[in-house]
Amino acid sequence: MGLPSGCSHPSFTSHARGLLTSLVTLLLHQLGSAQLRVVGPGHSVTATVGQDVVLSCHLSPQRDGRSLEVRWIRDKFSETVHHYRNGEDLYGEQMEAYAGRTELARDGLSAGSLDLRITGLRPSDDGQYVCTVRDADAYSEAIVELEVSAPFFHNAQPWMVALALVLVLLAVSIGLGVYLFRKQGKLAAQGWSAGRCSAGTRVGVVWG
């Protein structure tokens, strides 16, 4: 016996609703994953030993990052440099070398800024850092390259370094030349004086 016109089978209707719900859930999940994207500065960050530095990283498109889990790690060691979750900093997994030297900037966190501040740079801080972000449904990361240089050579071009070396060598050469010239002059003066004394002694002997 057929169903009356305009009526649908209950099991078919339930199946269609379940399928529609699954599709909507999947779409929302993919949309959320697409929205959670981390962007780095796109260039190396340079700083000098002893200075403080800020490693920039932000969410794109802009969104509030206060409810996310943010972890900065060293790419070489895959260890935690700084960990933030649920509105607080967690230091249990932090590398000992960074203890007391890191801070996640809070003033821009609500606008999607995930900047990390490192104080008192050391030569060992040089290298790659990874800014990772995670929520319940998605994960994203961005790489930031930090170049730490010695104070004298900070931002120095190769020709500047070469010129500095040439000037140093020139100054050393001039100083050495002046020293040898003066020493030679003293030796000559001593020889002349000794010659006069010797001549005077011979004259005295003849007259005697």
TrEMBL record:
Entry annotated with the keyword Transcription regulation: no
Compartments, as annotated in UniProt: Membrane
Residues that span the membrane, as ranges: 159-181
PROSITE patterns tied to this protein: IG_LIKE
Keyword Membrane: yes
Example GO biological process: regulation of cytokine production
InterPro entries assigned: Ig-like_dom (IPR007110), Ig-like_dom_sf (IPR036179), Ig-like_fold (IPR013783), Ig_sub (IPR003599), Ig_V-set (IPR013106), IgSF_BTN/MOG (IPR050504)
Top-level lineage group: Eukaryota
Name recorded for this polypeptide: Ig-like domain-containing protein
Species annotation: Anas platyrhynchos platyrhynchos (Northern mallard)
